[in-house]
Amino acid sequence: MTDKALAIFEKMNEMKYTNDLEFSNLMGLFMKVGEPEKVPLLVEEMKRRNIPLSLISYQTWMHSYSCLNDLEGVERVMDKAQRQENIKDEWKLYCNFASAYVKAGQHQKAVPSLKKVEEILGDSNYPDRIGYHHLISLYAGVGDLESVIRAWDKMKSKFPACNNLSYLTMLHILSKLDNVELLKKYFQDWNTKYKSFDLRLPTIVIVAYLRHDMLEQAELLLKDVTDRSGNKVWKVHALFMDYFLGKRQIDSALRHLEKAMTNQWKPLAGSFDPFIEYLIEQKDVNNAEQFFHLIKKDQSLLSTAYLGLLQIYAAAGKIAPEMRERMEQDGANIGTEHEELLEKNSNLMEASKRGASSRVAKKRRYQIVKSGFSIEVPARNCFRPVLCNRCLESIYQWMEEDGATIGRNTRRCFERRSITASAL
Description:
With 424 residues, the chain is mostly helical. Among the domains are: 1-88; 233-334, Serine Threonine Protein Phosphatase 5, Tetratricopeptide repeat, CATH 1.25.40; 361-424, no CATH class. It has 23 helices and no strands. The chain has helices at residues 2-14, 20-32, 39-48, 55-67, 71-82, 90-103, 107-123, 129-141, 145-158, 164-176, 180-191, 200-211, 215-229, 234-246, 250-262, 273-282, 285-295, 302-316, 323-330, 336-372, 377-381, 389-402, 408-416. Helix 15 runs parallel beside helix 17. The relative contact order is 0.03.
């Protein structure tokens, strides 16, 4: 993308179409692809061509130095910008300047610029709601709750009917500052005045409630938003799922997972990693199967679901019955990781079959020996030489389990075959 943009820029340059807009767009592109060091070079080229810088150019130039952790560079740009005349939306320049200090952790240096923004917005005949949103966010960035509330009140004086976006900004900030009481207050203020319901606002409050283990309040709010939004609350159920999973309450987590999937939740990659990690840690095959059946309903998750299920069976050391057949029947993509785990599962099945056959054989021998001990001594003695010590140890354990009487002659038989007294 960068190469194509540069090619277009050069073509426009050849045709002498380049102006501040083209340079500003190219600066923005370099910032987007993580190459802020190229922005000052473009500014120098603009100066060489006598192309005046716009507000956007100054903002991007300043931001590039901020990304490079060069506060002196930021200050130089601000000094140059302040000398320019007729810059519109001057508050944006000061917000950028303050943001650089906030990013660097130098909060005290940011405050004068924030006061300047507050002054500009307050004196303007054309108040800017978005300007106040930025101001409130930056005051929160320096941890100044008093100024956050003051800026909010000033905005409300200019915009009595605050819209959803304004309340969304305020609630997000109060949640970030972890002030639950004020969060509840401003949420209730919105809840009594809104013109259109916006699920994002109660979601912020629910997140804060769950963070503080205020489960009852969170569940009441969930019920309320469900009544208002119907099946659109899958994201909220996902939040509850994560909460209960963190509390190791797997049944509740699965219940909310089921509701989220029923409400058409389209989870992002990695959304179920904590779930799978928990089930692996607990070696919980039963709940793993329930988890699998919930998420396999989404065909795009089928391969991931089977991989998680195989990992859980492997961690538990248990056989996953007919797993390859299940995957093929469902049309799941079988990748390299699946194949490795299926191979381990197959080996475990073979080992289990061999073990079962061995146990059956030993049991049959025991039945023979058990019968042999009930017949005459000469015939009984014929059975003893063919038994290995390990078999005799197993036979002795089985005889105990059956409550068989181990008489003196039988005990001598075991002793002659080197079965130790401790084993007996």
